[in-house]
Amino acid sequence: MDASKSAQEAAPGGRWGALGPVGLVLAGGVSVQFGGAIAVSVMPKAGALGIVTLRLAFAALVLMIVCRPKVLGYSRADWGTVVAFGVAMAGMNGLFYQSVARIPMGPAVTLEVLGPLALSVFASRRAVNLVWAGLALCGVFLLGGGGGFSGLDPVGVAYALGAGVMWATYILFSARTGRRFPQADGLALAMVVAAVLFLPLGLIESGEKLVRPEVLALGAAVAVMSSVLPYTLELLALRRLPASTFAIMMSLEPAIAAVAGFLVLNQALSVNEALAISLVIAASMGAVRTQVGRGRARKSGDVVSGATPDAVLAPPEDAEDAEDAEGAERPVPETSGK
After folding, report:
1. I want to staple 230 with a disulfide (CB 3.0 to 4.6 A). Which of 10, 28, 114, 118 is the partner?
2. Is 47 helix (H, G, I), strand (E, B) or coil?
């Protein structure tokens, strides 16, 4: 084989170069959702709040050791941002795990994705997004069995929708935190905030169960699979993968969650639920592509590099935000909402 041709295909933009970061993102998504499935299986031993507490605590410990963020030299506004980010992270995780304790993972993640989807639709303000919103609503209608949510626990549905609201909030504060803190420092500090907030809740619900060796081991495994490993894989992928492609791939998470729920928890989907998940995935991908097209129209030829899907989904709030959303490189480590 010609040497120059091999080098071209191995380059980040070549035919084979793109498979690396795509594979990393897929691996991260699989890790997140299978970690969530394992967490559901642990809930009878530690409770939903207990497993969230362990996941956040172990993730915070690992990130603090790896990142070693400095805590001096930040303004009150900086700390306010990272605390709000931590609160959003805690709320997103707590509500989501309360949801999957009551309804299957596939529908839960599908309902949760509606939060970032709504944020993307509202941020774009384009008529075509009515199509994506309509697709998503059709998916929600089918998830409820074609009329209401009689087929799903309404409390679980409410928790999943609340988790979606917190995910949208997470996206907004993730972008702000990334601008104020270098590298992964903001993520590590926010994870500590989330862990501290959840510790009393976990202790009240689970008490001494949290320190049982088997529960600690499973909690550590969930933290690695659902936080540490996917964050690392996605950070590596985002060095070579446009954020637009990353965001579209993140839209596949409901499908991955459905597979994880089936394989780990034996949660089979009905035809209606499978179709509903497909509609919401299509709506999410369409909304992301619309945002990307709008950004490229404003700044032709720019490729978002080194950013998270926040740059695609989150609405610019000022001139600095607009610059970030259109392709300025910024050290935002925060990625998936799980």
Report:
1. 28
2. coil
